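ok trying this again, last paste got cut off
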Amino acid sequence: MRSSPHVARLVLALVLAVSAAIPAGATTLTRLGLEGLTAANEMILYGRVLDIHSYWNADHSFVMTDVRVRPTRVLKGDRAAGEVTFTVLGGTVGDITTLIIAGPELTPGSDYVLFLNREALRGNDRVLTVRDLSQGAFEVASVGGTPRAFSQALSHALVPDAAGLADPPGGSSGLALDDMFQQVRQLAGDR
């Protein structure tokens, strides 16, 4: 029995539709509140990204990016820290870009509240990094003259935490920066 061109096109369309519905890869993040972020990270700072530098790791298998930040305030960790450099997975070297789904997106000249911890990354020794991906980076913007911190996890669907909350801290309204500082310092045990 011979199949008609219409049947062949229909089968091809169904195969394409089904394959498009299957995710190629996904990053699943369970929502972390300020309590969890503060407890799980050794350094929390508010500062400006000075520059970023992407490069291949030692065995040339993955692109990494070093981010240099000038802290304005250190909320947890070494308060005498001058410039801080940390490493994130992904970046661009030449015409090769490695993208980490739900990873932090940082831009030189922009201000952030960052939750940092030492972790082993792709063949490196333990380095300072944003271990909680987009949940560990809050962009700072002025809204009505008041600086507010907005979680970069806003653009990602979070799995609800044990309390059933699925929005990142502050939700779409963000957190007033001074209120966030006060909450983090209290959670870190610095009153």
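PB: full thing came through this time. The chain has a mean pLDDT of 87.
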